[in-house]
DNA sequence: TATGAATGAGGCTTCATTCAT
DNA sequence: GATGAATGAAGCCTCATTCAT
């Protein structure tokens, strides 16, 4: 990911760098705090304490609390997109979808804060949530259209794609909540979850392949 | 629904009845308030004002604010189950699933508060949310197993059913958020959403039928 | 004055009385605090501390800080009007005006907080200030018209009366600031201030009398 | 007025000049800000932003915020004295007073910031206010004594003059607040205000003339 | 001298909960 | 059981001032 390592020693930074550095510290602190306690408990006091700066400093970098909260998801969401893209091979469309599905669950283990940030955003950071949703669904619909063009999908209209994408996102959300949380952090999803997803998708959405062996 | 008519005249009630009556008033008020403003804005002051009782009265009937909030979803959730069951015919399993899907969207128009209560509950009333999820997924898995017994579904294990059910619930959640909200209230979902769902399910989950004409 | 004696022992008060009592305590505390430190320093914390109640209590009785501040001047202003009226005799119009002038300075010695509350209100409690100004100038214009009717004033139109009244109020304001403040509280104005006022008014506004001996 | 044109291009200035220039920019910015928003809203941030300098720069030129605020009124006040003097003719003393009165209202239209700076100074810049008051009343008393020497005023002592001057200043203050403010800026006072003032003064303070036709 | 980020005290307000009547 | 005023902790944000560059 692009996350700056905030634990590094501060050596020689000019003004601009120090400024960016502080903002990043606050941002990372917010990620941690929201990931751990949720948006509702992510008070400015808690965030700045975690960041190791004064409360007032917060307002030198963000207009207000909400502005920061609304930036959280879109930013990490892009990291996720990049992560998933990197994990997607060149197999047939159906297999690729399974890879994306699996990569999603890999990502939430790499960035365990993401899950909570994603799930709660709708209610605590609606602006950021919409932005994220738009980011994702646009990209996803494009993928599906490309698959249709390649003949891997038939009989779905563009409008239906949009609905499908929301089902895919909703599925991941609910599955992650059900299967990824545990007492001590985020865990991998069981194999049968992936196989159920594979069956539903390869049979319901794609033409044939992908539905034989596990990847 | 089982909602008591709180507008009726209070005539002759004995002590026990008056007590239950007050509790119900608070409960209904909470439903309205949460449905309209969300859990976060559902202060005890607002709920009791809506109920027409004093703030202190609240604590004669509920241990604390959270206890009430956690009861909201499970109670209405059961209403929903009942509503959907009543709308499910005797057609083949695939068609029934489409009926259930459609009935869900009918229900949220009948009880517009439900959507918000459902969607926010996960974060504001986690205990109630888990209870609801358990209620629903248990019932749903039972339905799927029955369909498998009847030969309408093949090749899915019980564990996979549970995963599927979460996908179904997640799909509904995301679709409802995307397509049912509008400026003035809750609206019907577009036809293409239902058709996309039908295609995905009948092809991906069930054997053959259901995927021809619209029901 | 109508000010309740807030130092009295609380004996047996019913709910309504206790409520009014608390509100009065806050009101009186605000009077003291604003009188001593000015509106700008009259924080809710300071007022409630002076009143001996919790900060939260404040908001059970006033919508917000400003609402209380805006009530301060009009309320005390009416006390002042009453005070002055009681001190005005039945002499000729010019003499009565001198009596009012003197009574004003007596009042600010009786209620030393008044001066600051009055003078600062324009900027910190504009709503209350306008209300007060209206209260006073309406009453004052009425007095002048009556004097004109009685033949004690000639050659001034109603519009001019309004201007005159503002000059009278402005005069008192500036004079009080110049001559009434001192290191330890509010003091009487020197005799020559009153005589200057008497000369200006009896010669400039009224016909003849009043301008002979001091009252 | 003596206001430096802060919009001029900065060409070749030596160190001392640049220094004075910066200070003047801050000063003018403060005048604008206080005139428009009042002292309370005149934060250092706002002033420096308006001046186009950094916040830190402020403290290279002024000890603290209050020091600047206290300089505002006396400085502009002297501009006003000069302005009024220039508008005062050589007529009899009573007429001259009316001219001064009118010139005051002309001035506040030329420098619309003045009104607010003057009116609020008492509470937000007390030190500066006292200095201003002293400036004005000293000059004014001198004028009145000269008129007395010339026979235009009789029967007022020096002490009474001081009181009279405060009445004059107070009158102007209240009248300006009542009649000069409007939705969009500072406007001329109605004719009847001037006539009322003329009557009161020429009859109450001066001997005879001045009180016939309008000047 | 100019800069502007950092500081932290302090202000207003909300709200779940308690408790005397 | 019903009432509603009282409580006080906690939240967000502003702002004068400092200080390292």
Automatic annotation (TrEMBL), chains A, B, C, D:
It comes from the Bacteria. The keyword Acyltransferase does not apply. Coiled coil: none annotated. Residues 20-80 form the HTH tetR-type domain. Pfam families: TetR_N. InterPro entries: Homeodomain-like_sf, HTH-type_Tx_Regulator, HTH_TetR. One of its GO terms (molecular function) is DNA binding. Keywords: DNA-binding. The keyword DNA-binding applies. Residues 43-62 bind DNA. PANTHER family: ACREF/ENVCD OPERON REPRESSOR-RELATED, ACREF_ENVCD OPERON REPRESSOR-RELATED. This is TetR family transcriptional regulator.
